[in-house]
Specification:
By secondary structure, the protein is of the alpha+beta class. 33% of the residues lie in helices and 25% in strands. The strands form three sheets. A five-stranded mixed β-sheet has the order 6-7-10-9-8. Strands 2-3-4 form a three-stranded antiparallel β-sheet, with no helix packed on it. A two-stranded antiparallel ribbon has the order 1-5. The longest helix is centred in the N-terminal third of the chain and has 15 residues. The protein is globular and about 50 Å long.
Length: 266
């Protein structure tokens, strides 16, 4: 997975942010921050490989040469961690889970726990969406995305907050059309739409999709925005050049999606 792109000056800080949020650390009396058991298990000329110890799945992050990945690690340590108060699990125990990680896993990933069971039933949504992450910038004018995962009414809930370029190429409804496509999409149908159906007004929009088995909910909250104040004009123009000119081939307009929602189409 290429996560950093080709924008100079932003790659090492962005990589450091990725590593800080992924690699596990622990402060006494608190929960483990990051993914318990995750370690950097292999290094390549232009990538690093991450794996949870004892699990077969691997994640390869590309976009930087090896020396800059090491710079990102150093930046993670110097900017966001305090070695006097935090146990850096991935550094102090590179080949085995720490006690803190094992305790966290036992508490929050017990197969008999109701919360864990809800998360397991809906885990397919995050997995399926991750494999379709390219939709965010190849069929729509998304330039920034964040979000979180939780539960609501006994279903897994994935909330995504996306920023879109006002009146520049296809909008967030193209993402929804692609996700709901019967051939390439996910088994989801629209259950709620909120916002102005004409994207030219730049209003916030919310699309809520569910699966027929009611195991998971995808909540996409889209906002049309201009250039962030902290970005240089050159970087903003580079972002605009990467945006698509056309959306998904089976696109649906926002008004059509809203109509489907009001009719309760499966």
């Amino acid at each position: 997975m290429e996560v950093l792109g080709k924008m100079p000056g932003t790659r090492v800080p962005r990589a450091a942010e990725f590593l800080f949020n992924l690699l596990p650390a622990y402060s006494p009396g608190q929960e483990v921050h990051g993914v318990p058991g995750l370690r950097i298990t292999r290094r390549y000329r232009t990538a690093i490989e991450l794996r949870v110890l004892g699990e077969p799945t691997r994640l390869r992050l590309t976009g930087l040469p090896a020396r800059l990945w090491r710079s990102a690690e150093a930046r993670t340590l110097s900017w966001w961690t305090d070695p006097n108060t935090m146990q850096l699990c991935w550094r102090c125990s590179p080949r085995a889970w720490t006690d803190a990680e094992s305790e966290h896993h036992a508490q929050w990933e017990d197969d008999n726990d109701h919360f864990v069971q809800v998360q397991q039933r809906g885990a397919w949504l995050a997995s399926g969406f991750l494999r379709r992450a390219a939709l965010l910038h190849t069929v729509a004018n998304t330039f920034l995305l964040d979000g979180y995962r939780g539960t609501a009414f006994d279903v897994t809930r994935l909330v995504l907050r996306s920023s879109h370029v006002h009146e520049q190429g296809p909008g967030p409804h193209n993402i929804l059309a692609a996700l709901a496509d019967p051939t390439f999409g996910l088994p989801l149908h629209l259950t709620r739409f909120r916002g102005d159906t004409d994207e030219s007004y730049g209003r916030d929009q919310q699309f809520v999709l569910e699966d027929p088995g009611k195991t998971a909910v995808l909540d996409l909250r889209a906002t049309a925005e201009g250039a962030p104040s902290h970005l240089s004009p050159e970087l903003w123009q580079a972002i605009l050049r990467r945006l698509p000119d056309a959306g998904f081939s089976k696109r649906l307009s926002p008004s059509a999606l809203a109509g489907l929602c009001s009719l309760g189409t499966p």
